[in-house]
Amino acid sequence: MRNEPELRLIGLSKTFPGRKGVPEVRALEDISLQLHRGELACLVGPSGCGKTTLLRIAAGLERPSEGKVLLGEEEVSFPGGQVGLVFQQSALFPWRTALRNVSFGLEMRRGRDRRWAEEEARDFLYTVGMEGFERRYPRELSGGMQQRVAIARSLAVRPRVLLLDEPFGSLDAQSRNSLQEFLVELWGRTGLTMLFVTHNVDEAVFLGERVFAMTPRPGRLHRVYEVGLGYPRDRTSPAFVEIRREILSYLSQVEKAPGGGS
Ligand SMILES: Nc1ncnc2c1ncn2[C@@H]1O[C@H](COP(=O)(O)OP(=O)(O)OP(=O)(O)O)[C@@H](O)[C@H]1O
Ligand SMILES: [Mg+2]
Fold first, then answer.
1. Looking at the domain that runs over 5-82+160-261, which CATH code has it been given?
2. Ligand 1 in contact with 49 (CB < 6 A)?
3. What is the per-residue pLDDT across 159-214, written as a single tens digit (0 to 9) for each?
4. Span 206-242, pLDDT tens digits
5. I want to staple 125 with a disulfide (CB 3.0 to 4.6 A). Which of 1, 114, 120, 130 is the partner?
6. Any idea where the domains of the chain sit in the sequence?
7. By C-alpha distance, which of 66, 70, 90, 88 is closest to 80?
């Protein structure tokens, strides 16, 4: 059922402890959000508002100071397993080919049957449109291609939820647009539940069925926007422009407010 909650973040807070001469950081404050099964949602917020921290907690890579994360009915264990994360910077192994980057997680998870893992990896490279590039090393691929491989690597372990941390942030505008189109198409094909983090409002409105807006210091979730437009989206349509304007003006308003809108 599409309306069933797949991933639930409940009352998450995070304080990074300080040390001598370095104060503690309250990165997140009481964040709750739910992703429905099969939903593509985006999370926007300015740099430093805690987006990466939130995803790391949701993926089970970081413990929250308070609150919990549920996947279906089960609490996400630490370190997590069924939640895939595509990182902000390309995190491919430079010494492994595209194919061996994708097969890596499979070999780790299901014993070390390398041939099986490579066959699976080949399928996932195909899924992201990277057939023919199996033997290339990351340095031989464009930034956009590297991010496709990173997405394939996350998909290959068949996560229930895919979290993406500004995966297209370092790309030029044209590659970025084409990867956004690719992501919508991939989501349509796989029906995977996805949370896509970006500080780019245009990207969030292009991708998300819903857009969550965060404010900084400490990061709080203040608004949820229902985008309500079909796919593929037209950035020049009045409805698109209007919702983008609304979110941008909200974010700039909270940025100016003392305490980041809190
Ligand atoms: N391991 C850590 N130890 C201490 N402080 C941390 C740690 N990780 C993050 N922080 C702090 O938590 C806050 C949120 O950081 P985070 O990386 O989650 O922000 P972000 O929204 O992802 O920013 P950006 O858009 O620049 O990627 C920042 O003030 C950061 O300095
Ligand atoms: Mg970040």
1. 3.40.50.300
2. yes
3. 999 999 999 998 889 989 999 999 999 999 999 999 999 999 999 999 999 999 99
4. 999 999 999 888 889 989 999 999 999 999 999 999 9
5. 130
6. 5-82+160-261, 92-158
7. 70
